[in-house]
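G., the chain you wanted modeled:
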Amino acid sequence: MLPEATEDASQVPHDALVGGMRAWAAADSPWTLLVDRGRFDDVLDGVRRLQPTRIFSSHLPAASGTSLERFLEVLRSVPDAEPEMAPSHEEFALMVEANVTPPRGQSVGS
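Predicted structure as tokens:
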């Protein structure tokens, strides 16, 4: 998670951007840890050749100006992330319970 809302990726501290992108990718898109690095680099180079003025993300601030190359380099590092471990059955049950616990004095379904 980013420490605060920003307008551009250049405003996000480098370690926060790298950590956030890697953690999100590992949890939300675990296939990114299995990509063929050469082909992945080719795709990123294709983006560079397009010479975009801005790159938009569904979960991060836009990257523009000098932050474009930084953003692509962080993306390039995503396959190096540590895989996220799925919660155990017990951990998952606790997570669900924490999200469906009714307000005090009420029971589930009332």
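The mean pLDDT is 83.

Shout if anything looks off.
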